[in-house]
Amino acid sequence: MDRVWIFDTTLRDGEQSPGASMSVEQKYEIAVQLARLGVDVIEAGFPISSPHQFDGCRMIARGLKGVTIAVLSRALEKDIDSAAESLKGAERPRIHTFIATSPIHMEHKLRKSPDEIVEMAVKAVKYARNKTAEVEFSAEDGTRSEIPFLCRIVEKVIDAGARVINIPDTVGYAIPAEFATFLKNIVEGVPNMDKAILSVHCHNDLGLAVSNSLAAVLAGARQVEVTVNGIGERAGNASLEEFVMALNVRRDFLPFSTGIQTRQIYNSSRMLANTIGFAIPRNKPIVGENAFAHESGIHQDGVIKKRETYEIMTPESVGRDSSQLVLGRHSGLNGFKTRLSDLGLSIPESELRRAYDRFLVIADRKKEVFDDDLYVIVSDELGHETETFTLDYFNVLSGNTAVPTATVRLRSGDKLFEEAATGDGPVDAIFNAIDRAISMTTKLEEYVVQAVTPGKEALGEVSVSVLIEGRKLVGRGASTDILEASAKAYVNAINRFKAYQSTRKGNGNGNDAH
Ligand code: KIV
Ligand code: ZN
Fold first, then answer.
1. Which residues line ligand 1 (CB under 6 A)?
2. What span, in angstroms and rounded, lies between the C-alpha atoms of 64 and 444?
């Protein structure tokens, strides 16, 4: 079977989704899990865009062995210098340089002629090749570019030393059959194409990112750029789990292999969702709560008689044999730690004790602690040392005849911030009291609550999306008490804003890849 290389861009394109930004440590933890998942390439970030991005790339490049680490750069020497610097110490470094090739981008965004674009691309690839042996070139907005021009630039950058040629569907415009023909024309129109690997990077604006990636593989692409849970700019990128499982399940029609350990898929998905605070839609293929649930009587009857009547893959094959009872209040620290490591949840020793104490509180309230609860506990406890505020306590007075009133106290180092406020409901009152206590002006854009596991005492997970000074921040919190989960989620969003503010202090230039 032909091998398809999985290039994961969760930490670069994925992190560009509004509200998905992560701390350097969080990015590193996700990178460790991506390596365990078996991706071939981890795109760690866009180093020139901010000191925070640079630090994340450097930490991942230095720390992760056995996997290629790519970082993004525009076709500019200063970007490539920063990319090369961030990759120092990497076992398998790759510089990924890009420039737009569509008429609309060249004329209106870059204001350059096609000849100038070719010259810049060739110069950038040569410059990058002097810094790393592996260079990838991307023709941004590739699918809206003219084929003769694409063939010309691709031929030249391969001559200049690019070993991977990526054709992004930057705006999610392609249609599968058309995209396949488009790629075949490139393969046929570039005489030295056999010296490079053809790659694709599809966005999901029309919901076709995975379909386009599969069509691309059938047309000759051997690297596919994806993200966990399909996160990414706007509607996101092709989802890793959907793409990989399509290859696995339909091996008869798609005879391609990957290095993905599919049993690590669910772990990776949960870990990312909890880290960035994006809830996974219930009907999301492979990783959504309902993806393996059979509701109709006819379906249930069929599955009981023979599973394959309504299941094209097993939940176990993607690591979803997890929702069994695993631990209880009598479980010791060692058992807790072992179960976390079985689930691929790594937690620094310094934070383990706190996570265990939290587990004990939850085990006491809820008796049965499921693996899904553990994902939440761990992501809730990670990274607290760097948080500006912690929730000290809250009190709410509410009822259908009272004006909902909340008192909260937040702590930041030795300082305490205490205030009371009323609101339309208990949650609104808590949020108003928090705003007042720390003198913040925020706008709540979204509030989602969901139960992590079944049962009346289930852990409730709250995600909020808050606008602060024009920036959208996502926060999450979990507790068996929904009001406490709400307060924690809100404080979490504010802490992310504080972290963002502190990384921007200094010299970040705020460039994004698009
Ligand atoms: O979508 C896109 O074109 C990109 C490139 C930078 C690869 O993300
Ligand atoms: Zn992209």
1. 13, 98, 138, 140, 168, 170, 201, 203, 513
2. 38
